[in-house]
Amino acid sequence: MQIKTKKISDYLWELEKTGDMLVPGRIYADEETFGQLLKDVDAKKGGGFTPALMQVANVACLPGIQKASLAMADIHPGYGFAIGGVAAFDIDTGVISVAGVGFDINCGVRVLTTPLDKKAIEPKKEQLANQLFRDVPSGVGSTGDIKLGEREIDELLVIGSRFVIDRGYGLPEDLEYTEENGCMEGADPKSVSHRAKERQYKQVGTLGSGNHYLEVQWVEEIYDDEAAAVYGLRRGQIVIAIHCGSRALGHQIGTDYLKTLEEASRKYGIPIRDRELVCAPVKSPEGRRYLSAVYAGMNSAFANRQAISHLARGSFARVMGIKPADVKLLYDVAHNTCKIETHEIDGVKKQLLIHRKGATRAFGPGREEVPARYRGVGQPLLVGGTMGTASYILRGTQKGMADCFGSAVHGAGRAMSRVQSSRQWSGSVLIKELGEQGIVIKSGSKSGVAEEAPGAYKDVDRVVEIMHRAGVNQKVARLRPLVCIKG
Amino acid sequence: MSYSYIEHISDIGIHAEGETLAAAFESGVEAVLGVMFVLDTVDESVKVAIQAGAREIDLLFVEVINEVLSMQGRDGLALKRLETRGLEETDKGFIFTGIAHGEKLNLDKHEVRTEVKGATYSGLRYYKGEGGRHCLECILDV
Q1: Interface of A with B in 8-47 (CB under 8 A)
Q2: Which of A76, A79, A445 sits opposite B112 (nearest CB)?
Q3: Structural domain range at position A55
Q4: Low-confidence ranges of chain A (pLDDT < 50)
Q5: In a domain, A85, yes or no
């Protein structure tokens, strides 16, 4: 399939509707980053893996897609869908795809605020890092203190965060500040395999590995005083950021349904341009089961981040002498999901199945799903950077609701492969260099640190600036890391 | 074992090959386990039965890798290698049976690297390479 491109604005580009595309593609990018995406398409003309722009075009060919196949500014190649991809489907005629969610269902970020300032943390930074590293299980094969059997897992899959809060892992008000209140209605444990549940028996309250982290950060810059005040943020303040997902349970759901949807694609004769995009009609038995399993996986991830929050509160209480309740949940956002949401298309409100693959929900002011306290300024968006650069807190806008189904970037986006990153950097050297910059890194895997080198990622400032200037997300605060616990 | 890693911006790709299809499967699984652990630090004291089936050989490759990862996660193991016991074609497709060797995961002993979430259909292909060698490739979600 040939692609034809058109510049819509300095920060938005279109793949015109050609060939089998049912809708155009729309990509948030500046001139240079879009140029690079085009170069990637040219470079792969002789074969190889599907470039991100082609993935956007392939998704635009899926039945029932609405308005546009979208990609946020952190776009890079994923499997099937580009990472940073957002696609909305009609409930009656559309499809649901494993590739549109990813294997780490409801990988997401939460940020907790503390009453502490940077200068209070500095003298105890190393001690705090060691305490967090001891208290929060991380890395390959790590297990948590919460040991569950199948009956308890079933309950957790249905009620999400509340399951661990009821067991003392958090505060009831945390639920209000979690996307979907930490619970997707409609999760059916019967749609999740016994194997997936078994793999989760000991993993609740664990970070995992790869790009997952727990960071102690400080607020370096405030861009929007009103929103920052509403979110409870001020310059110099210490916050805690947690990035992780549904662990092995989510991975197993992905694995199980990849096979189910591969068979469903053939059964229903769905025209897919790439085998990675295996999918089922939303309303088919397979599609309904998968959506229910995704909801269960999302609930597991909400509970996981909730349990880790409790552990981090304990670490702060022990080292910094503050009360756990002084550490308040600002918000928790999911970024590998598909769920049914109501959006306006051509002036008509419609229920749609929204896939966000490495993209965050970003509802603007006034939406009832946004906590009452934040509703006047819009939902907080938590954008994870790298252990050496910065993270951001943004807010959703009305323009974002109208243009991209209320969606946002989820991080910086990788610019370099893990293999290349490992060749270029040594984990030990990186830890030393970041230490010299005042950032304490704790990890059980030096090679994991090398793969996650800050230089292996795109410039998060630029990615965020694109979304800000496009008007679909607005900058509120910039955060810098002080301590990073890596899986 | 004959395998290599393929550059992929988000994840990690594997290329595995062998004189026989079974050898290519074994190489592929070792490549995956090598993403997770420094394999020299893992001994063999535990055996796990692996069984998987699929309509086509490339799909079977994904199924076998995911079954190995799944059993490893379920039982809290660090696996080191896969041994093929049977790889046959039936009316309904291909069936793989084998044994994965390794030991209980011990974070004091095993040097861990990065968790593999699963094998995907991305970059998935089976072909005959030079000298008729069986080649398998796919991208892992890490």
Answers
A1: none
A2: A445
A3: 5-100
A4: 46
A5: yes
